[in-house]
Write a structure and sequence with these properties.
3-stranded antiparallel β-sheet; 6-stranded antiparallel beta barrel; 26% helix; 176 residues; single chain; 10 strands
Length: 176
């Protein structure tokens, strides 16, 4: 919105999309509002008395948009240094930092030796992903910069957290 909408304000929401398809009209209440860096206002809403078909349509729309976003950014690898910890099978812990990251893996700095295909767990603090993120990974090739890690079946939530970070970083870099 171009102007602030106060918390608790009742509004009528009209959502229309051709791809993925959605036609929705409902009453809602504003539960929070915040200003973006570009000066626009965004608001979080709680729908009131949303019918079961409308709810199904909205959930289907959200899942389709999430899948579309994941497909778009899943192969995007960004160069970014994110501090982390690697735990090896012998329970030894090693500090590391990403050189780059994507939803399927990361290149990390390494001051320790590891065998190709060795399983490790890489963990990142909540400062980067909004929550502690720990992912099982296999060690790939190594060179003077570090190791390639291939994530072993990251959860949907883990992939989404990584993709959100990638999109936010891409936006930040476009603005800078």
């Amino acid at each position: 919105a171009g102007e602030y909408v106060p918390t608790g304000q009742a509004i009528e929401v009209v959502l229309s999309s051709t791809l993925p398809p959605l036609e929705l009209r409902s009453r809602a209440r504003v539960v929070r509002s915040w200003r973006t860096t570009s000066g626009e206002w965004l608001s979080g809403l709680c729908f009131e008395r949303l019918g079961s078909q409308a709810e199904r349509d909205l959930v289907k729309f959200c899942f389709m948009k999430e899948r579309e976003m994941a497909e778009r950014v899943s192969n995007v690898r960004i160069d970014i240094a994110i501090p982390g910890r690697v735990q090896r099978g012998d329970r030894s812990m090693h500090r590391t930092s990403t050189v780059n990251i994507c939803a399927d893996g990361a290149r990390v700095t390494a001051t320790w030796e590891a065998d190709r295909d060795e399983e490790v767990t890489i963990s990142f603090s909540e400062d980067w992903f909004g929550r502690e993120l720990s992912i099982l990974a296999k060690v790939g090739r190594r060179d003077e910069r570090g190791f390639d890690l291939e994530f072993c079946e990251p959860t949907r939530a883990d992939r989404a957290a990584i993709n959100q970070l990638i999109m936010a970083e891409e936006r930040r870099r476009r603005v800078a």
